[in-house]
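Standup notes
- DV: blocked on the single-chain target, sequence here:
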Amino acid sequence: MLAKLKPLEAALSAEDEAAREAAALEARFGHLAPQDIIALSIGRFADAGIGAVSSFGSDSAVLLHMLARIDPGLEVIFLDTGKHFEETLNYRDALRADFGLSNIRVYEPSPGALAEHDPAGDLHRSSTDACCDIRKVEPMARAVAPLAAWFTGRKRFQAATRAALPVFEAVGPRIRINPLAKWTTADLADYMRTHQLRENPLVAYGYLSIGCFPCTQPVKPGEDARSGRWAGQAKTECGIHLSSLDQSLTDSSL
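- DV (later): unblocked, structure below
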């Protein structure tokens, strides 16, 4: 069951406090190397609850390898939408074994929401936003509800909409941490090569950003890494990184 809406004053206070803390952390630590950001963040939020979210996509191995070296028991959230490529599911299991990740938590869509809104499994054909709300945003909201902070693997180079991505940002009363925000494709490639990390096998076929199979296609030369997601639509994000995530914590319609 989703958390009930807090009294307005308390909610605003918690959100203001998170915004202030994110700004302070960004100013003081945003310039640090990803590994240092991870270590200090785990130390800061361990008691209140901290985890990571991973799509096990094209370059997910980099952040997961860093996390595993510091705390292999850290909770890693994986959203099983029911529409993943088989390669992604196999890659998740391979990295679990490679890195000794002992706390991967799988969250799935609500069976009731699927039965009511997507009984045939083809909602993506009529509304990709509604499909993402059911299969990703609401499960993600459930996953982070107990946490004070979580890590993501987002980078500034991935899309124009992420060009100003901070390392530390507030999402309602929680803190989202993007340790790799400043890294480039060359940084990622160097790290993968140095540590001999396996990549998602779909990368070899031109999938540079990997989501659900109905809405993901290979990237064309010269396009940004996320251009293969919802190609031909104005949509650029599934919603788990937008304000709708925090909103869904109190919205039973999702």
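- Follow-up: Residues 247-254 have pLDDT under 50 and may be disordered.
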